[in-house]
Amino acid sequence: MADYAISYANLNAIEQSLNNISNGLNSVGSGIDVISHDVGTVNDNVKVVYDSVGQLANEFHDFVMIQVKANNLSNSNGKLIQIRQQLDKQFGQWLRWSEPAPSGVHIQPQTLQVNVSVQGLFLKSIAFLLLCFI
After folding, report:
1. Could you tell me which residues are beta bridge partners of residue 114?
2. For residue 115, what pLDDT is reported?
């Protein structure tokens, strides 16, 4: 075998290729930094959306509670009317409901006018208790 000695080698091509690889890695590193920043921005936006959804859930819950109270009020008004009609139907000869006072008159609306009798006084007491607890 013959021994060969390299006395001169042109490494410019290898050096150029290594520089290209280095520039490519720097470009990839910059891209990763941009992506990392964008992921941080998305994370912040998700937190804002999560807080907004929580606030909307609380507002919806408040709305539902208000609606339930309004429905209960409507139902209780209907029940009060039914009780008044039943009292008037069963005991109309003793009880008469007065109409609400006109504006400017300072008397309590929905007062009872009762004919003087023991039954009337008893029914007035019952009606008063019903009105207090409904």
Report:
1. 95
2. 45
The whole-angstrom separation of Cα 7 and Cα 47 is 66
Q: How far apart are CA 113 and CA 124, in angstroms?
A: 9
CB atoms within 10 A of CB 94: 21
Which residue matches tokens 């921005």? 41
Q: Which is nearest to 87 in space by CA: 130, 33, 43? A: 130
Q: What is the mean pLDDT of each run of 10 residues along the chain (134 residues)?
A: 67 90 92 93 94 95 94 85 80 57 52 52 71 64
Other CB atoms closer than 10 Å to residue 110's CB: what's the count?
A: 13
The secondary element (H helix, E strand) that includes residue 96 is strand 95-97
